[in-house]
TrEMBL record:
Database matches in InterPro entries: LysR_subst-bd
A Pfam family per the record: LysR_substrate
Organism: Pelistega suis
Domain LysR substrate-binding: 4-74
UniProt name for this protein: LysR substrate-binding domain-containing protein
Domain of life the protein comes from: Bacteria
Length: 85
């Protein structure tokens, strides 16, 4: 989330983020809310989750557990797994 916030502050584009995640930036004027009269929910947009891990023969059990959780949660949805090179 920090990367998206940083990119938006640098003017790289528009992001959809929760109010709490950008409250300070909005308060200081670094970011400007748009489309505030349009309700948005996760049902209205595609939600993408990316889990990036270093390329390694060993993956910690806690990392694998989180990955398994998301795959199970969105089973049947669009789910891709990529390995960093």
């Amino acid at each position: 989330m920090q990367k998206l916030r940083s990119m938006a502050i640098c003017g790289a584009g528009i992001v959809m983020m929760p109010d709490w995640a950008v409250a300070d930036e909005i308060r200081t004027g670094k970011l400007v809310p748009i489309l505030t009269d349009t309700p948005v929910s996760s049902d209205d947009a595609d939600i993408y989750v990316a889990i990036l891990t270093p390329q390694s023969a060993y993956r910690p059990m806690n990392v694998q557990a989180v990955m398994d959780f998301f795959v199970e949660k969105w089973e049947g949805g669009r789910c891709w797994a990529f390995q960093a090179t």
